[in-house]
Every structure is written in structure tokens, then in C-alpha cells.
Amino acid sequence: MKKLFVFMLAVLMAVTMMTGCGKENDPKEPAKEVLNIGLNSNIVGLDPLNGSSNGARAYAYAVFEPLIEYDHEGTNSKYTPCLATEWSVADDNMTWTFKLREGIKFHNGEPFTSADVVATYTRLLNEKSLNVRSSYWTYLDSVEAVDDYTVKIKTTQPFATTLISVAMTPIMPDEAMAEFGEDFWNAQKLYGTGPWKFVEWVDGAYLHLVKNDDYWNKSAYNPAVKDLYFRFLTEVSTAITSHISGDLDAYIVNGGISRDLQSMYKGHDEIELITTETQNWIYLGYHCAGDSAFADYYARAAVDYALNRQLICDTIFSGDAKLSNGVVLPSLDGYDPTIPAYEYNPEKAKELLAKSNYDGHEITIYTSTSLAKGKDQILEISQELNAVGFNTKAEAIESAKLTEIRKAGNYEVFLMNDNLMGADLSKYLSMKVLTDAHKHEYDNPEMMELVDKILTELDIPKRNEMLGQFVRMMRETSAPHTVLYYLVQTEAINKGVVGIEMWKDTMFSVKYIDYDPAKAK
Fold this sequence. Notes:
By secondary structure, the protein is of the alpha+beta class. The protein has helices at 2-18, 54-63, 114-126, 131-136, 162-167, 174-180, 183-186, 236-244, 259-262, 297-306, 309-315, 346-355, 374-387, 399-408, 426-434, 445-456, 460-477; strands at 34-39, 68-70, 79-81, 84-89, 95-100, 140-147, 150-155, 196-202, 206-211, 227-232, 250-252, 271-286, 321-322, 363-368, 392-397, 413-419, 481-494, 497-498, 501-502, 508-509, 514-515. α15 (426-434) packs antiparallel against α16.
């Protein structure tokens, strides 16, 4: 019976995909009405304030909307109105006033007012573990409705990236949150104000959105596409085969499509390979407390010298990864080129390890199955660490399981990637260092004080100088993370598919997606 169910499910999914894909459109037709976007990792939940993957964020910002939008270019980002028409900040640099757009309705007809903004930000205040809160709102203090179309958002102190944080906060309907609670997302009763309406999420298979025919900004965005699917296809070579056969209109891979697999697209001129030098870096995260081997500085420092980062860039990534001297990448404000590169010196690694308290117990190096070349990386890292005296094994696990392990601190070391919100380091500093969302438990008051200053410093030159100081401190202590390299990312998008925004912070947007047959030629 189970085999029959699996077979019928496979048939049903194949039929569903064929409704939007497969046979090429007649060029005389005005446009495709169904687009299928392949992703190499599933999403783990629908809560728009708690999405931790780029796919989850892309869905959330197509269905829901923030008060303002921005271009993901960092501290010099350009901001544009969305649910708010204008904004200002008081002389204290902590009180922000937003004038809201009138006449907007949620997908169920509920009017958008300041009550929805208050409900959304109040939830962030009350639930500090939410991803949007821990990533972007370390200093959120209060939210207040001045009237139906004016709100004030206050921070506890000046916050250098407040507007980026506002742009990363999708607004939820207050009446639905009051009526449904967590069932709003758990029971898939979702509705927002965006140009796409939520239909269904089948865990591990697909997420389906439909065009919002009553979108408030229809005069600026009125796509011919009516149905949009995210297809979760974790095996990259199989997904590429599906793409070139016509079942997908784009394939977006966390970390990019590796160079050795890009050759599969050769001869398929209807598909464009788009390459971006990203701000997506790979790092090792340590548990720096208790009986973890990496509670010891010498063990962490030994890892720094044991790893041949350039070899991994050249072999595993075939040149699609580049070295950095720390967490502030070369494309970021605050990058200090005078900081030396990491040195590969296995003999020094052995000397440092001999000074540590490491007792030889087996250490598991975890990574996510959705991380590009993740398993290959940890196998090589494990081999290099064992060569200097560590006793390690490599284990790739599902993304959701790894997230649980990190949040609980049930690890000694993991390999993962991180990316930046709008080309700024604030998300990483706030979530991964200061508030310790993944339980590194590194006790360094001086480092935490410096991070707090970086997050609240409004003078850009001073802030950049402090970012350099932070990199040097990380290098001197080898904690709480060690940076390995950053990625050059390539994604595959059919010609004619327009409006997929691929940002250098590795986030992407399908909010304004469409199909233009004139560009398919």
C-alpha cells in the first residue's frame, strides 16, 4: 500500500509540473501563465517572521510586504516606499515615524492599518527567538500607533541599520494573528498584502502561489504569470536534468551551481547562467564551552593552521570560491587588506594542538545536505584535521536537523554558510555573535562590547574601523567562528523569465517575477 501511495504521489507531482512546464510555449502566445522555480533545499516552515532560508524569505516577501524596500547594497542602500509612503527619524536617532499607505487590503479583504504594524512588531518584542528578531532587531524597544496610518518604532539606542531591519520585516494582519495564532501559518491560513497569494505548501515537494488580481500596486506590476511554484529538488544533477527538459523555468541553488555541473547546460541556449561574486561565506562554527574540544583556544588555533583553504577552493569548488582574511569580505565596508591571509601550516597546527587540552575523543563535523559541496568539504576538512592529530568524522544532515542541533548547542563544530542582509554585517554580528542564536557560548566581554558599538555606531568611517578591529579579534582568538572562503555563485534562469532579483548578499526575490516572450529569443 505504501509503494502504491508513493507511486500515485509521483504521478500527481509529474502531472502538476506538466501543467506549467514541459512543452515550450508557442512564441506567438503572449506569455507563460505558470512558472516553476527549482530550489535545492526545502523550507522548514511558513511563519513569515521566522524563515531562515532564502527560499522561505523569497516566499514571505512575495506574499507579505514590509513598510519599505531596499536594494541590498549595504550601508549606502537606496530605500523605496512600500506599505509606508514616507518616514523620518527624531534627533535622538532612536525614534522612527512611518506614514502608512491608505486603501490597501490584505488578501482576505481586511484593511491594512497601523494596527497590523503594531501587532507584527509586538510579536517581535515578545518572541525574541524569531529569526527576524534575532537577525535584525537586537535593539527594538517599542512600537506605537499614533493614528490609523502613522506608527512610531523606537530602538533602545541608535542602530546603524534600522532601515534595513524595517525592510526585512514583513507585516502580518493583526486580526488573523488574534484569531488563528500559530495556526495562521501551521494550518496554512496565510494572507498578506503582496502581489502573490499563498495557496499550498507540500513539505519536501512544492509551494504554490497565485497572482493577486487585486494587488494595490497593480498599475506598476501586473504580471501575465498567474501561478508560481517553488519546487524543492535537493539532488542538483537530477534537478538540472529536469530544468533542461523543460520542467523548470529557473534553478536556484544555495551556494550556486558548481562549475562541474554547469557543463550540463551546454547547448541549451534557452537557459542563461548568471554568475555573481557573492557575500556568501563558508565558516566553521565552534561550541566554545563545556567539554567541547574547542573550548580550548589552542585547539581552535590548530584548526586555522591545519586547513588548506586554497586547495578546497581550487579542487572542490573548481575556482568558484575565493579566500578572505576574515568575516569582513573584500566587497564590504570595513575590509582591511593589511590583515594577513590565513596561513596553511600543518606543523604549527600540530604544535598548537599539543598545547591544548584535547583528549583525542571523536569529534563530529556537521554540515547541511543543502549546502553546496557541503559533504565534500567536511570530508576534506576531516582528513586535514586528522592529519595533524584530531580524531574527527564528517556527517551531513538535513538542514532542519542541523538548525535544531545548533540552536541547542549540541555540537562541537559545524560547517555552514552565512550571508549578509543588504551587504552589511549587522545580521551576522547581532544573531550569530551577540545574541548567540546558535550557542557558541564564547565568553569574551571585550568582543561583545565591540560588537555592540559596531551595531550602534552611526558614523560610517568609525564603524568601518571597528569592523577591522573585530576581524583582528576573531583572528587572534580563533573564535567563535573561523572563515574559510566566500563563493562565486551561478544560477540558471530561462531566457524570458524576468524579475528574479539575485542580490550579492545571496538573497533572491520573485516578488516582481514575470515572463516576457520577446526576451526568450
